[in-house]
């Protein structure tokens, strides 16, 4: 991918060329998945950052798949995105999560053009030279609700940014941070302040020590008087409690992209279970476990559930790509169902295999930890169910 322009281009030839570009990038996915899988256990065990895997994403073009056509990119769709992230989730869920946030940032820019042109051109230039990870930092130690505690104060013509963000995936390797903050004005405004990852005043606090996604480096980030240019701000406005259409679309992209990672993890768990059942012959049997009706029935149930979840996510992604507003509204419910299915498949795989499934010698216990930890990227189930209930009641 060589993003060289920021001027709109039109016509079927351009669209066809972009589709061909996305297809060419997707063709390299299997090789990258294999590479990630080969190092996943090591990075999980040592909680080390997967620099080699991120470099492979960059070299294959997968990290910039969603750069818009008007910027010279492939213009990858949500359908493309969930396919890629499900694949990466099969290799290493931590790398998939890191890729997801960068792909979502480029996709949002393709839809809205929110980043000021000069700053996005800089990001694209860095993306040509090497991996340029991006993440929007919103979560704070105090939890969600109300105005952010992170404050932007006027410093001459620019802004001075101070605060602490938590659960910052890729913290130690981010090229750009889009930091959600409020101004210190009498009537506060909120927006995303664009910060270069190596800016003075940024300190990464290595507190990430979770059960799963251990290589995602989702540490805390402390900002102390970080200078932000006056024009390096996205969406600075007074909060009014309304959720614009673009915010709903962005949330739908986020939900389907991240639950695709979980589905990829579940698919790897199912693949491992199949191999285990084919090879495992207990001492009191003469045939492998795969020949026993109980195991065959359970495997059929799990495979059916996973296929259904995969098709549900892919179908809804295609609907959102077509611009169907009903599909956007259903994304929360779909991610909930898909994540439940993914979690249930991995848990059932562990139950069927017993002690071997929980051994660190096998990857199944890692899949379980990763799929459980992935829940942090979604709203609580009760919040999603309340939204669906409210919609159902009209």
What does this structure look like?
The structure is a single chain. Strands 1, 2, 3, 4, 5, 6, 7 and 8 form an 8-stranded mixed beta sheet that branches. The protein starts with 11 loop residues before the first helix and ends with a helix. The model is unreliable at 1-14 (pLDDT under 50). It contains 12 helices and 8 strands. It is globular and about 80 Å long. α2 packs antiparallel against α3 and α4 runs parallel beside α7 (245-279). It is 52% helix and 14% strand. It folds into 3 domains: 12-131, Butyryl-Coa Dehydrogenase, subunit A, domain 1, CATH 1.10.540.10; 151-237, Butyryl-CoA Dehydrogenase, subunit A, domain 2 (Beta Barrel); 245-393, Up-down Bundle (Butyryl-CoA Dehydrogenase, subunit A, domain 3). By secondary structure, it is of the alpha+beta class.
């Amino acid at each position: 991918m060589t993003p060289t322009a920021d001027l709109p281009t039109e016509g079927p030839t351009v669209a066809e060329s972009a589709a061909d570009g996305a297809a060419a990038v997707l063709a390299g996915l299997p090789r990258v998945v294999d590479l990630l899988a080969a190092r996943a256990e090591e990075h999980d065990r040592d909680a080390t950052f997967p620099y080699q895997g991120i470099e492979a994403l960059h070299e294959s073009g997968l990290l910039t798949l969603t750069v818009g056509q008007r910027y010279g990119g492939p213009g990858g769709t949500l359908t493309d995105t969930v396919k890629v992230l499900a694949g990466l989730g099969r290799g290493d869920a931590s790398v998939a999560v890191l890729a997801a946030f960068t792909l979502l940032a480029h996709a949002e820019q393709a839809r809205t053009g929110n980043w000021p042109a000069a700053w996005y051109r800089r990001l694209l230039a860095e993306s040509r030279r090497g991996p340029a990870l991006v993440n929007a930092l919103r979560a704070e130690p105090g939890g969600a609700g109300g105005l952010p505690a992170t404050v932007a104060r006027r410093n001459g013509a620019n802004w001075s940014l101070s605060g602490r963000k938590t659960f910052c995936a890729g913290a130690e390797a981010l090229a750009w941070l889009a930091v959600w903050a409020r101004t210190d004005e009498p009537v506060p405004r909120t927006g995303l302040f664009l910060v270069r990852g190596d800016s003075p005043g940024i300190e990464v606090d290595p507190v990430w020590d979770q059960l799963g996604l251990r290589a995602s480096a989702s540490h805390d980030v402390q900002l102390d008087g970080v200078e932000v240019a006056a024009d390096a701000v996205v969406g600075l406005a007074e909060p009014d409690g309304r959720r614009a259409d673009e915010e709903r679309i962005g949330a739908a992209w986020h939900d389907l992209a991240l639950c695709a990672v979980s589905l990829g993890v579940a698919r790897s768990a199912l693949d491992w279970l199949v191999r285990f059942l084919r090879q495992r012959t207990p001492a009191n049997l003469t045939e492998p476990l795969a020949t026993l009706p109980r195991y065959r029935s359970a495997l059929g149930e799990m495979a059916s559930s996973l296929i259904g979840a995969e098709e549900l996510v892919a179908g809804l992604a295609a609907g959102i790509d077509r611009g169907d507003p009903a599909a956007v509204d259903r994304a929360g419910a779909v991610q909930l169902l898909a994540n439940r299915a993914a979690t249930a498949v991995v848990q059932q795989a562990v139950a069927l295999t017993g002690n071997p499934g929980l051994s660190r010698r096998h990857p199944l216990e890692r899949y379980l930890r990763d799929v459980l930890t992935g829940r942090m990227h979604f709203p609580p189930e009760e919040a999603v169910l309340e939204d669906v209930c409210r919609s159902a009641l009209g």
